[in-house]
Write a structure and sequence with these properties.
It is a single chain. The protein is mainly α. It has one domain: SecY subunit domain (Preprotein translocase SecY subunit, Orthogonal Bundle), CATH 1.10.3370. It is 75% helix and 5% strand. It is built from 16 helices and five strands. The strands form two sheets. A three-stranded antiparallel beta sheet has the order 4-1-5. A hairpin with a 2-residue loop joins strand 2 and strand 3. Helix 2 packs antiparallel against helix 8, helix 4 packs across helix 11 and helix 8 packs across helix 9. The protein is globular. The relative contact order is 0.11.
Length: 426
């Protein structure tokens, strides 16, 4: 471990990447504690304690929402824009062609559209959140100018974080958005630990419930590590080749299919969508004057408060997004074409369409395991919360999943960077 750390910081380029990421995260955390003016802290805390969905959104804002800071929604609007653009690749052929077939230029154009789409989404979501907080007297009586200024500042904060996230991604050590969410979660861990031990001290009778919480957390960490490292290997053989009159013997290798191809992205997508109906319904309940609209919004709000409905819907979203994102990042047709061009084949499977069908079948089976696991991890804390009454479990489960997944991803990227540099001088 010590030797690895020495190697990491002895490499100038790798050290520079890590220091840049650290600096960007420090700037992010500073912005997350700079509040917008006129916030009633006591009302804000009480409002968050009563609404678990805002607690989920606060995880993805890195604490910016609970502080009503200048980065109010964090990267949530950017995540929403990414979801919309990814969905459009399946329904709009031009977008799919731009993303999958036009190479690097197409992906840059795709990313640019995502950035532009983030701006109106940030304005809309920030205005809705400010209006919701005003309806709860968290922001007090503010003028239209004050509201407009808050929207502009918070939107600029989201754009700044979006830029930070993309710069971190370019460093090649992991997904920038996931790393920023990870930083926000880690910043809140000391408060969670303190609250955990305070609960034990104040309620000794709840010792068993807290013990269950710790056991579930440890099992989740072990399960996440196991599934993230698990993979199905498909053998690949290459036929003999003749180059310059010399016959080169065929070689054998394998194609690894990870059980969790999509990583933590399905969880991020699912949470971003599942909190939206509840927040909108809560806002409409507080601001609408039409009795019919208020009645519909009230039914939708309390429907999502039902733990059974919420858990089933959440599980389904995670499974759906796992399949969807896996299909986006792993294309069996493209893999089969590349193998055929390189003279490779799966033993016992004919090249072309049979190989595509075989890869799709195996990928479907492997993804099913990963999707069910991610969905189970997502809803398991809700189940345990219902059994033990430990309220911190709902957020804790998502936090554990993101933290462990991001750490594993960063470790793999750093190891690959070190392995690449190990061959210098040969």
């Amino acid at each position: 471990m010590y030797a690895t750390l020495v190697r990491i910081f002895s490499e100038k380029e790798l050290r520079g990447k890590l220091l840049f990421i650290f600096g960007a995260l420090v700037a992010y955390r500073i912005a997350a504690v700079v509040p917008l003016p006129g916030v009633d802290v006591s009302r804000l805390q009480r409002f968050f304690d009563e609404n678990q969905f805002l607690g989920l959104l606060n995880v993805f804002s890195g604490g910016g929402l609970s502080n009503v800071s200048i980065v109010l929604l964090g990267v949530a609007p950017y995540i929403t824009a990414s979801i919309i653009m990814q969905l459009m690749t399946t329904v709009v052929p031009r977008v799919e062609q731009m993303y999958k077939e036009e190479g690097e230029a197409g992906r840059q154009k795709f990313n640019m559209i995502t950035r532009w789409l983030t701006i109106p989404l940030a304005v809309l979501q920030t205005f809705s959140m400010i209006a919701l907080l005003r309806s709860q007297n968290v922001l007090g009586d503010i003028t239209a100018f004050d509201t407009a200024a808050m929207v502009v500042i918070a939107t600029a904060g989201t754009i700044l974080l979006m830029w930070f996230g993309e710069l971190i991604t370019e460093k090649g050590l992991g997904n920038g958005v996931s790393i920023m969410i990870f930083a926000g979660i880690m910043a809140g861990i000391p408060a969670i630990v303190i609250r955990f031990f305070d609960t034990i001290g104040q309620n000794p009778d709840d010792f068993f419930n807290n013990l269950v919480f710790a056991a579930v957390a440890l099992l989740m960490v072990a399960g996440i590590v196991f599934v993230n490292e698990a993979q199905r290997t498909i053998p690949i053989s290459y036929a003999k080749r003749i180059r310059g009159g010399i016959a080169a013997a065929g070689t054998s290798t394998h194609l690894p299919l990870r059980v969790n191809q999509a990583g933590v992205i399905p969880i991020i997508f699912a949470v971003s969508l599942i909190i939206l109906p509840n927040v909108v319904a809560g806002y409409v309940m507080q601001t609408a004057t039409n009795p019919t609209i208020v009645s519909v919004a009230s039914k939708a709000y309390y429907l999502f408060q039902n733990q059974w409905f919420y858990g089933i819907f959440y599980f389904a979203l995670v499974v759906l997004f796992t399949y969807f994102y896996t299909a986006v990042i792993f294309d069996p047709t493209k893999i089969a074409d590349n193998l055929q061009k390189q003279g490779g084949y799966v033993p016992g499977i004919r090249p072309g369409t049979p190989t595509v069908e075989y890869l799709s079948k195996v990928l479907g089976h492997v993804t099913l395991v990963g999707a069910v696991f991610l969905g189970t991890v997502a809803v398991l804390p809700i189940v345990v919360q219902g059994l033990t009454g430990v309220q911190s479990l709902t957020i804790g489960g998502i936090s554990i999943l993101i933290v462990v997944s991001v750490v594993l991803e960063m470790v793999k990227h750093i190891q690959s960077q070190l392995a690449m540099r190990s061959y210098e001088g040969f």
